[in-house]
Amino acid sequence: MPAMRSPLFHCPVCDASLDAGPRGALANQGFVRCECCSHEARWQGNRLRADGSDRRVTAAEPAPSLDACDRRMSTLGSLGVTRGRLLDIGCGTGRFLLVAKARQLEVAGIESDEDQRAQAVAALGIGMASSLDTLEPEDLRFDVITVWGALCTVDAPLSVLAWAAERMRPGALLGLSAQEPETRTQHRFTRQSISLCALRAGFEPVQVPARRSVANRIFSALRPGPDELELWARRR
Fold first, then answer.
1. Torsion of CA 71, 73, 75, 76, to 10 degrees
2. CA distance 94 to 63
3. Taking residues 183-190, what's their average pLDDT?
4. Per-residue pLDDT tens for 35-82?
5. Residue 21: inside a domain, yes or no?
6. pTM higher than 0.70, yes or no?
7. Which among 42, 43, 62 has a CA at the least distance from the CA of 185?
8. Is the residue at 147 inside a domain?
């Protein structure tokens, strides 16, 4: 796991100094912006929430649409995944896992919200972990791990991705989305900072086959939407 220095004055993604954090927080709705990687982390009281002490993960809001789930599964297929074991961290009610299960993947999920976890268990007919630390010992190697938006809600995103890397086979795929949820946001990612977070955790970004027109790609570059902060990577 990457070494983490004191969370009080350092960026949780690149570890750059954030000594001017309190002044930045006052100017940006409680968020501190890192000048090195452009990541923004919420300042809480006199510290950054980046120590990894909170091991719970819960789904981002809103839940992904079925179209988004299908598109992500199609991306998996284009990257050569048709079978194997998939873990969704912050799986919510299990919508993405249902789509993955229908595509013949063996699925598992982690969700800290009790009500959402109960709905996922009922829908999928499988047990569900409530935190990173409660995943069953036999569920420790995966071909795919996904974190759809939940990375924005945890204390220490780098710690979560390093945890995932330790539980993946070499060459396994990681799917990330940095769509900012409506509530509980602790981090605001950019393309630069989410890519750096994955690199530091032991992943290498992979090129996803383009399925959009040139005009749409140009528009997205000028005005990025939530899907533009998706990243697919392979464990080194």
1. 170
2. 9
3. 79
4. 888 888 877 654 554 444 555 666 655 667 788 899 999 999 999 888
5. no
6. yes
7. 42
8. yes
Cα separation, 3 vs 40, in Å, equals 20
CA distances from 82 to 99, 102, 183, 211 (A): 13, 11, 34, 19
Question: In this structure, what CATH number is given to the domain that contains residue 168?
Answer: 3.40.50.150
* CA–CA dist 39, 11 (Å, integer): 8
Q: Which domain holds residue 89?
A: 66-235
pLDDT in tens, 124-134: 999 899 999 88
Residue 120 domain-assigned? yes
CA 227 to chain centroid: 13
Q: Is the bond into 157 cis (omega within 30 degrees of 0)?
A: no
Please list the helix, strand and coil fractions of the chain in percent, rounded to the nearest 5, in that order.
35, 20, 45
Q: How far apart are CA 41 and CA 66, in angstroms?
A: 30
Task: Count how many domains the chain has.
Answer: 1
